[in-house]
Each structure stands twice: as C-alpha cells, then as structure tokens.
Amino acid sequence: MKQLFDLTKKTAVVIGGNSVLGSSIAIGLANHGATVAIVGRNLEKAEDVVKEIERNGGKAKAFQADVSARESLIEVASAIEKWSGGWDILLNAPGKNSGTPFFELDMDEWDDIMDVNLKGVVLTCQIFAEKMIEQKRKGSIINISSVSSTTPLSKVFTYSVSKAGLNSVTQFLARELAPNGIRVNAIIPGFFPAEQNKKLLSSQRVDSIMGHTPMKRFGKPEELQGAAVWLSSEKASSFVTGTLIRVDGGFGSMTI
C-alpha cells in the first residue's frame, strides 16, 4: 500500500511554495520522497521551507520567480531543469486576495490579483507543461483553487472570479494534456487561515464561516497534504484528471 504513495525519484515544482498552504504541501510531497523545487517571489521565505524539508531528510532547493512575468518563469524553469533534469509534478499555489467592495474596485487591483491567481497559473502551465512534454515525462499538475470558485463569497469578488477561472483552466488542460500522459486536477480548500485572508477574518465572519462548515473548525495546512500526495502519485491516481477535489470540512455540502 505504501508504494501507491511513494514519490521517490519524482521531482515536484511548487509555485508559491513559500506560502502557508504551498509550503505545507511541499513538505508533504518531500516526506513521501519527492525532490522539491520551492518557487516564490520571496526567496528568503522559500529558503526557510527548504531548510525544513532538509531537516526532515528531504531534498529541495529554493528559486525566485514572478508568476505574472513570462520571462521570469522561463528563466526559473531553465534553472530547475539544470538542477533536477526535469519534473513530474507541478503544484500551482500562488495567491493574492483583497476585501475591496465591488463598487470601490479599481482595475489596477483587479489586474494585480488576476495576474497572480489566474494569468500566473496559465503562464506557468504553458511553460512547465511544454517542458514536461519535451522531457517525455508523464506527470501531474495540481492547481490550488478555493471554495469561493463554485459559490462566490462576500467581500472577495476578484479572488472568487479568479478561482472560478482557475477551475475552468484546470478542466480545459485536463483534456488538452491527457494525450501526453499529464493529468490536471484542482484542490478546493475550505477555510485555512493564511496570510492572504487573515485580515478579512473578523469575529463576525468567523462565526459565519463556522455556521456554514459542518466540521465547525478551520482546516490545518497539513490536511491538504493527503490530497496532493494522492494526485501526485501516478500509481494512486492514474485515472484521475479534470477533477475538483474538495478539502473543506463539508463547506460545499452546506445549505440551510
């Protein structure tokens, strides 16, 4: 059974690997044997994740890139290829949020969030998936979505729209890349307190979230590791593509 989830000899690229959720998933992949490239805009934070992986006996390296800039992604892809020879797993976990009310939203803020959450993932998939095809590597692409992608949440208009778009990108690419042996899926996390959403969590909003979450608690970052490891494993999820996997404490099943 352990062999189903063994990622030894696999290389994972984690975009946004210096974030709360991205770093936890990266650590989970490393704990199952994967060599991990941690990619983030903040190199110092990325290096902290590498140190934690190495303390656990894993292998990782930090790389700096701006996901909204094609040239930056091309450069980091080339650097990772020189370091590891290629990759089998691509995890897209960049994220930017804002609570600006709809009628106060300006297009600079709209573009900034979309550039990271949606455009950045599209660019990353273009560059890294094409390399995977050139390398003749079958593999897995995992996008981190949000519960706001299916039922829009109050106060996070642009974020919700960007994540809905990400779901569509995921399912389109699942069809596009299947002939190349590349599976594409998304994880839909529920509420996991992270840097990008803590400022929006007033006591009233927390009460509302708990009222709509059957398990009556926030998620813990490590609770995303299982789904990510499963989707990364060719043996465990070889016939899984185009899916949106909820890890949300039941939020998506709640009505009145």
What do you see in this structure?
With 256 residues, the chain is of the alpha/beta class. The protein is built from seven helices and seven strands, in the order βαβαβαβαβαβααβ. It has helices at residues 20-31, 43-55, 70-84, 107-134, 157-177, 203-211, 225-232; strands at residues 11-15, 35-40, 60-64, 89-92, 139-144, 182-189, 244-247. Strands 3-2-1-4-5-6-7 form a seven-stranded parallel beta sheet, with helices on both faces. Strand 5, helix 5 and strand 6 form a beta-alpha-beta unit. The longest helix is centred in the middle third of the chain and has 28 residues, at 107-134. The chain starts with 10 loop residues before the first strand and ends in a 9-residue tail after the last strand. This is glucose 1-dehydrogenase [NAD(P)(+)]. It catalyses: D-glucose + NADP(+) = D-glucono-1,5-lactone + NADPH + H(+); D-glucose + NAD(+) = D-glucono-1,5-lactone + NADH + H(+).
Fold topology:
Blueprint: E1 11-15, H1 20-31, E2 35-40, H2 43-55, E3 60-64, H3 70-84, E4 89-92, H4 107-134, E5 139-144, H5 157-177, E6 182-189, H6 203-211, H7 225-232, E7 244-247
Parallel strand pairs: 1-2, 1-4, 2-3, 4-5, 5-6, 6-7
Helix pairs in contact: 1-2, 1-7, 3-4, 4-5
